[in-house]
Specification:
It is elongated, with a radius of gyration of 20 Å. It has 95 residues and is mainly alpha-helical.
Length: 95
């Protein structure tokens, strides 16, 4: 029974890794300017000075912040599920 659970966990992790990789590659190939948002301000400034990228970074900054917040919430919920639900740990409140 334990071996089956371990195999299912491995398959689930592999599927999630492939899905994450696919989503990242999709975002990069769709619009390559999206990956520059996480770079330091000096580098973003140099890229923005290029005529074809002028103004694109500032327009996308708000969208990227909301994506990061969603990603953080998704991460926290998954860690909670991993620790509490999958591993069986729970907080014991004594009164």
């Amino acid at each position: 029974m334990q071996a089956i659970k371990e195999m299912l966990l491995f398959i689930q992790c592999a599927v999630y890794c492939y899905l994450f990789t696919f989503l990242i590659l999709l975002a990069q190939y769709k619009e390559h300017i999206n990956i520059i948002i996480s770079y330091p301000p000096k580098i973003r400034q140099r890229v923005e000075e290029v005529p074809q990228h002028k103004g694109m970074i500032k327009q996308r900054k708000k969208l990227m912040q909301s994506k990061k917040i969603f990603g953080l919430i998704f991460f926290v919920v998954n860690i909670y599920g991993l620790i509490v639900l999958d591993c069986g740990f729970s907080v014991i409140v004594r009164s």
